[in-house]
Amino acid sequence: MDNRFPVLKNDLMVRAANGVKTERVPVWVMRQAGRYLPEFQLFRQKHNFFDICRSPELASEVTLMPIRRFDLDAAIIFSDILVIPQALGMEVQMVGGVGPVLPTPLTKPEDIKTLLKLDIDVEKELDYVMKAITLTRHKLEGKVPLIGFSGAPFTLMAYMIEGGGSKTLAKTKKWLYQYPDESLQLLDELTHVIIAYLVAQVKAGAQLLQVFESNAGFLGPKQFNEFSLPFLNKISEGVKQALNDLKVPTVPMIVFAKDAHMAIESLSHSQYDVISVDWAIEPSRARSLAGNSVTLQGNLDPCALYSDVKQIDLMVKEMVESFGTQRYIANLGHGIYPDVNPGYTLM
Ligand code: CP3
Predict the structure, then answer these.
(1) Measured distance CA(189)–CA(168) in Å, rounded
(2) Active site (catalytic) residues
(3) Residue-number span of the structural domain to which 206 is assigned
(4) What family is reported (predicted)?
(5) Which of 32, 101, 139, 145 could form a disulfide with 207 if both were Cys (CB 3.0 to 4.6 A apart)?
(6) If you take atom 18 of ligand 1, which residue's CA is the nearest one?
């Protein structure tokens, strides 16, 4: 695949993810493409959120915004995890100041059959994402690698049931207690869609993949082991197997299971190359749980960026010392907040 694209000049991210020595710690910022950037906010006044996602030209433009501004070591394709529920036939609106709203959420297991087309042809339904990835690979001219991504099954299921963000995820967790079999069935079907989607992204040019289980922290260890971990594992195994079968070179995979510290050890034995950790765990503790055969990514508190540059500098140094400079990717512990002053985000 790669010979269709400009040669990658900065491969620090790929090397760090693969456990190959790097002369410097690579850095990128979760949710770097959007929100806090004034140029993005201007762009958003002119374009609807999903119109940007669906236009390869517009999506690649937003993807490149942080790359033009900062000396980052990776780009992440501009899209959203909710394009999957949308492709499955659910309406998703992006409401300014509120976030995503799904006006007709799943309320009972029977809704799965009426609402969703779980056997969709992902390459066709989400072809705009693949086109955006291919175009962006060309526009990047090999400057840095391009990360593709997807939401993980439990996080997507939660949005499909809650109809948007939630403080407790009570509706979703009610499903886990009342309809465990149907929940597992839905998670399994979403897993198949996600695997096809991530494979298609690599075929289109994605050079790394990140799987966002942003809602992992709502689950206790038992529920995490039943409703999240098996599907995260199925995704990494399924994507790598499918790429091997297609004779497409595999790419490093990053898993971000926010607040799932109990899973760091088992994830370190999985097919994921990188475990992204949030700020609520000491880097040294994360390293001792993960061992030395996996790369760690993280974990500065996004709110640390409200400090002055000098303080940020100190906190970053402390973080890097604690993680160590090898098998490590510097990042935030979750996405950057919209009100962060971008003048301060150059780490
Ligand atoms: O760097 C990037 O921002 C790349 C693109 C990207 C978006 N969403 C664009 C976006 C990525 C990687 C995501 C992932 C995503 N989306 C996650 C997982 C990561 C995480 O932060 O936990 C989740 C849970 C979502 C769902 C979602 N989309 C929420 C909760 C919101 C509202 C709050 C917010 O994050 O801004 C969105 C909206 C969204 N997705 C925006 C952008 C740029 C801002 C909305 C706007 O422009 O109106």
Answers:
(1) 24
(2) 31, 35, 44, 80, 159
(3) 2-338
(4) Belongs to the uroporphyrinogen decarboxylase family.
(5) 145
(6) 212
Q: Which atom of ligand 1 is nearest to the CA of 80?
A: 8
149 φ/ψ angles, rounded to the nearest 5 degrees:
-155, 165
**Atom of ligand 1 minimally distant from the CA of 98:** 32
Find the length of the chain.
347
User: Domain with 264 in it: what CATH number?
Assistant: 3.20.20.210
* Cα(191) to centroid(ligand 1), Å: 20
Considering the domain boundaries, does residue 345 fall inside one?
Answer: no
Domain presence at residue 179: yes
**Do the domain assignments include residue 250?**
yes
Q: What is the DSSP letter of 196?
A: H
Q: Is residue 23 in a domain?
A: yes
For ligand 1, say whether the CB of 99 is within 6 Å of any of its atoms.
yes
Strand 93-95 vs strand 99-101: parallel, antiparallel, or unpaired?
Answer: antiparallel
Number of domains in the chain: 1
CB of 36 sitting under 6 A from ligand 1: no
How many angstroms separate the alpha carbon of residue 48 from the centre of ligand 1? 14
How would you write the pLDDT of the chain (347 residues) with one tens digit per residue? 456 899 999 999 999 999 999 999 999 999 999 899 999 999 999 999 999 999 999 999 999 999 999 999 999 999 999 999 999 999 999 998 899 999 999 999 999 987 666 789 999 999 999 999 999 999 999 999 999 999 999 999 999 999 999 999 999 999 999 999 999 999 999 999 999 999 999 999 999 999 999 999 999 999 999 999 999 999 999 999 999 999 999 999 999 999 999 999 999 999 999 999 999 999 999 999 999 999 999 999 999 999 999 999 999 999 999 999 999 999 999 999 999 998 854 44
